[in-house]
Amino acid sequence: MISDLIRGFTPSPAEVTIFVVIVVVFVGLLIAYSAATHRRDRRRRIALSERRYRRRLEELALSRSDEEYLEVLLRYWGDPERKYLLLQNHTVFSDCAERALTDGAIGEGQVSALRVRLGFSGQPAGAEPDSSADIPQGSGVIIADSHSRMIPGRVMDPTPSSFRVSTDDDAPRLTSGSLVEVVYQNGSGVYRFESSVLANPVGEMDLSHAERIDRVQRRRYYRGKVRLPVYVKPAGEQERPEPTRFIDIGGGGASFYAPDDRYQRGETVEMTFHPDSQQAMHLAGRIVRESHGGRVVHVKFTDVGPSTRDRVLGFLFRRET
Fold first, then answer.
1. Per-residue pLDDT tens for 300-312?
2. What pTM, to 2 d.p., does this model score?
């Protein structure tokens, strides 16, 4: 009797099959509903993003060609739900621009013009620049021409087509099309980019924008002429340092007047000086050559860290600009 009772509660294979089918159908319906809801929500987010994108375009009053260039950059963004960020986020714009430039899908001038029109020019001081348009207004720069002349200047408000720098009225005048190198220093390092002269009226130089900004590597350093007091002595000696004067100094080395005839090629010297009346700087260097009958000593710095090198270069830029 008990076995009959148990068999009465045991489902038949047909009942089990029906139950499984019901569960599978129910789960399938839930998945389909969730997928449909997700697609609907995604379409809604894309439509909202598109409206925000179009509204921002109207506010910017961009030309049709500018909008076409933006469409090129959008191919490298790949997030239609946040399409509008290309017009609002500097990092998103720079990332898309870098990849588009690498692929040759867009030109540097077109990207720079968009930066200015979108309001992405003039990033905060100390930030690493992605473009010439990122260099803040008022920053000091050095413009080096093909004759190695160093022309100091200060950055002016850029235009979509030009990087503008104010210069002294008596600065060398360069012809349109001349190739130059622009060097810029801020708290994050020293940067350079190549450019060409668009116009050079008195007191101003208009240059082409650049989207490829290089951080100056250790083998390349700007050097400036200074007549700064410096105290030198042979490295490792306990004697008092001797006073003399720098002739020039840069991130990689310096030249100074030899206080006596002891300073020979190959020897290491220690130098102490005060840039801009700040805390004293102590630098070591190896003498690489002598000139002017041994009266001038040329030194290559040894064991100089990035922060010390940037301090030297910052001092030079402040003097020049």
1. 988 777 777 777 8
2. 0.59
